[in-house]
């Protein structure tokens, strides 16, 4: 558990840790302090004091390990997570954000999945509940209702990993083999890059279909420090590497802003694989084509009605925003996700 200026959340977090059901398992709690402001500083934070106040109680249940430094600029979430792992010694790793709360059976359930699956290269997540209630409803509905197949096919969406990082549980040997998280400072999506690295190396995904975590939504969450352009760049790189580089041609579904941005983000070789844009908007279709002004020959790419689209298709349309019109249109085409089309929105 990495922490930085987390005082307002820690009491609740530690309470949830003390309620964990632990049966014949030796568990360490490895906390790494990523520069929290100590007493006496101009930006005083009580993180370290709260950890000390809980020390004796936590040590009744866990082997407590606390490392880190004070009153310095944050070195990044990836750095903090890696150091917390480095100072621990467990066979398995259960990641816990300082502002989230575990259900009492979280460790118990995920540990037994790991033991029963007998596969070190497995990343185990779970369903979750947002607090405050009603926060990010569309995101929560998406993550909690993905099918087992969609855990792999919908990895390019802007939502991020199909298993949300605060629920991750994995083997230490696999984590070490992958080299841990990227240690780029603030503003990097270290969870997404690790997730893609996991899949590229043949890792499996497993979601416990129970709510095992209260996932807190608040304005100070590190998620908000990651610029969407950074996430976009990582996603573009990955979908080209895994999908588009292996195609001879493709259609982009969305002749509007997002579809054109997707096209412009492709490398030159993959741009020439785009045979057309498709859409359901008569105004966009009536224009007839999109002109690539940056290409040497000012290449014109046709814009057609979606019913005329030829797979494979990269879909750059956001889900759940068209009164189900888009979803109905897509379903009517009898296409196979992960074979005929991939979602990127």
TrEMBL record:
Protein name: Glycosyltransferase 2-like domain-containing protein
Molecular functions per Gene Ontology: hexosyltransferase activity
Lineage per the UniProt record: Eukaryota, Metazoa, Spiralia, Gnathifera, Rotifera
InterPro entries assigned to the protein according to its UniProt record, in alphabetical order: Glyco_trans_2-like (IPR001173), Nucleotide-diphossugar_trans (IPR029044)
Domain Glycosyltransferase 2-like: 1-178
Species: Rotaria sordida
Gene3D superfamilies per UniProt: Spore Coat Polysaccharide Biosynthesis Protein SpsA, Chain A
Record-linked Pfam families: Glycos_transf_2 (PF00535)
PANTHER family named among the record's database cross-references: GLYCOSYLTRANSFERASE (PTHR22916), UDP-GLCNAC:BETAGAL BETA-1,3-N-ACETYLGLUCOSAMINYLTRANSFERASE-LIKE PROTEIN 1 (PTHR22916:SF3)
């Amino acid at each position: 558990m990495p922490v930085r200026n987390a005082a307002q959340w820690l009491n609740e977090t530690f309470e949830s840790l003390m309620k964990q059901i632990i049966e014949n398992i030796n568990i360490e709690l490895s906390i790494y302090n990523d520069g929290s402001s100590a007493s006496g500083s101009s930006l005083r934070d009580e993180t370290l004091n709260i950890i000390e106040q809980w020390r004796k109680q936590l040590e009744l249940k866990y082997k407590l390990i606390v490392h880190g430094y004070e009153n310095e600029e944050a070195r990044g979430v990836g750095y903090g997570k890696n150091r917390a792992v480095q100072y621990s010694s467990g066979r398995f790793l259960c990641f816990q954000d300082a502002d989230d709360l575990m259900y009492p059976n979280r460790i118990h359930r995920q540990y037994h999945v790991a033991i029963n699956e007998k596969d070190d290269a497995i990343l185990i997540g779970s369903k979750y509940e947002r607090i405050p209630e009603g926060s990010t409803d569309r995101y929560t509905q998406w993550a909690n209702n993905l099918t087992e197949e969609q855990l792999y096919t919908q990895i390019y969406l802007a939502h991020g990993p199909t298993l949300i990082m605060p629920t991750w549980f994995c083997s230490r040997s696999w984590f070490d083999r992958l080299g841990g998280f990227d240690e780029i400072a603030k503003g990097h999506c270290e969870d997404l890059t690790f997730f893609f690295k996991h899949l590229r190396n043949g890792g499996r995904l497993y979601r416990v279909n129970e709510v095992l975590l209260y996932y807190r939504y608040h304005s100070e969450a590190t998620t908000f420090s990651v610029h969407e352009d950074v996430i976009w760049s990582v996603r573009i790189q990955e979908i080209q590497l895994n999908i588009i580089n292996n195609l001879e041609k493709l259609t982009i579904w969305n002749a509007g802003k997002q579809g054109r941005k997707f096209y412009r983000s492709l490398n030159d070789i993959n741009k020439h694989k785009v045979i057309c844009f498709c859409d359901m908007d008569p105004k966009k279709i009536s224009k007839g084509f999109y002109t690539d002004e940056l290409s040497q020959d000012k290449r014109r790419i046709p814009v057609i009605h979606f019913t005329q689209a030829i797979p494979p298709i990269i879909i750059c349309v956001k889900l759940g925003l068209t009164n189900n019109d888009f979803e109905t249109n897509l379903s009517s085409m009898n296409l196979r996700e992960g074979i005929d089309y991939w979602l990127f929105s």
